[in-house]
């Protein structure tokens, strides 16, 4: 049997869309989806992994598509009851979602690794692809803001990304080990594509790249590394990436994202509306193509996934 041919690095919403497209075009045993864990946090005694869960719910067809997170048809009785008790209700936990966190927390307490628990959840939900956390060790994004340092979910959910960002740090990253399954796949001769999904470059992709040895392992892989721009037409499709760029003094362009990956990536994909950026990205020494990258429905996801795979294969010839 062929091993992993494609590795996709993903955050939550943007990454999960392309991951679903890849899952539709590749045989399940060939795809490895690597999730950011720096958004993870402990809340109400539960261990919550927002990016892993968004990808899981997307792959098994249970994701709430309009909301972009959580489960379709979710009910909120637990949160309502918690709120009535005066408990913290700023992080919206649906009833079915709570079950995922309960199961995970219990298994971690029993000594299971996050990778094992993730595999168990995927198996139970009928997901045939390999979905793994980038590391089994805790890495936590801390957002530096004008008003002080904030744990990621405090910034992202409780304060709705309102504080002005001045930088980030990834606590624990220096002590984290790359998931051994990812390490093995990166050094496999079967590998033909490494994809950075259109995920937030600062808080979804950067924490994964901060793990010691990750950049070296990527550079040693015998496959092209292709990043898809999350910035389209001068803004982010969703989430705070554009706001972060402007607060960090960066232009809100695909070029500015490409610069962050230029020491690592082989190629960068911009959206067709940003065709004027192609020549400038190529000046960074990256290959670059423009293609439709907006994934508004499953056909879009499948089409982009096929195009990215074809592009990777063309690059490695
Ligand atoms: P999060 O962890 O939930 O914030 O999700 P990600 O980091 O994976 O994705 C967030 C990024 O995805 C944002 O910067 C969006 O601009 C980008 N994004 C979301 N949907 C799309 C899309 O359809 N096409 C492209 N090109 N980017 C997208």
Automatic annotation (TrEMBL):
The keyword Transferase applies. It comes from the Bacteria. It holds the Pfam family CofD. One of its GO terms (molecular function) is magnesium ion binding. Keywords: Magnesium, Pyruvate, Transferase. Its EC number is 2.7.8.28. It is an enzyme of class 2 (transferase). InterPro entries: CofD (IPR002882), CofD-like_dom_sf (IPR038136), FbiA/CofD (IPR010115). NCBIfam families: F420_cofD (TIGR01819). This is 2-phospho-L-lactate transferase. The lineage of its organism: Bacteria, Pseudomonadati, Pseudomonadota, Betaproteobacteria, Burkholderiales.
């Amino acid at each position: 049997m062929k091993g992993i041919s494609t590795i996709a690095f993903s955050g939550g919403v943007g990454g999960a869309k392309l991951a679903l497209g890849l899952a539709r075009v590749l045989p399940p045993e060939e795809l490895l989806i690597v999730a950011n864990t720096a958004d993870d946090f402990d809340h109400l005694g539960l261990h919550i992994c927002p990016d892993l869960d968004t990808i899981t719910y997307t792959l098994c067809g249970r994701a709430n598509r309009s909301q972009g997170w959580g489960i379709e048809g979710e009910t909120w009785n637990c949160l309502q009851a918690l709120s009535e008790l005066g408990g913290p209700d700023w992080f919206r936990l649906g009833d079915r979602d709570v079950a995922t966190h309960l199961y995970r927390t219990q298994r971690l307490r029993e000594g299971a690794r996050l990778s094992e628990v993730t595999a168990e959840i995927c198996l139970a939900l009928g997901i045939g692809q390999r979905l793994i956390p980038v590391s089994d060790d805790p890495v936590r994004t801390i957002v530096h803001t004008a008003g002080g340092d904030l744990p990621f979910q405090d910034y992202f959910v409780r304060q709705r990304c309102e504080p002005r960002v001045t930088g980030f740090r990834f606590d624990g990253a220096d002590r984290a080990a790359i998931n051994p399954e990812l390490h093995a796949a990166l050094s496999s001769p079967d590998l033909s594509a490494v994809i950075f999904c259109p995920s937030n470059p600062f808080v979804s992709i950067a924490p994964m790249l901060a793990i010691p040895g990750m950049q070296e392992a990527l550079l040693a892989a015998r496959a092209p590394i292709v990043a898809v721009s999350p910035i389209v037409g001068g803004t982010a499709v969703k989430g705070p990436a554009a706001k972060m760029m402007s607060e960090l003094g960066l232009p809100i362009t695909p070029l500015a994202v490409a610069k962050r990956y230029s020491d690592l990536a082989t190629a960068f994909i911009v959206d067709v509306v940003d065709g004027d950026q192609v020549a400038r990205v190529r000046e960074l020494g990256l290959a670059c193509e423009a293609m439709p990258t907006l994934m508004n429905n499953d056909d879009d996801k499948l089409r982009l996934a096929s195009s990215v795979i074809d592009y990777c294969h063309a690059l490695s010839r």
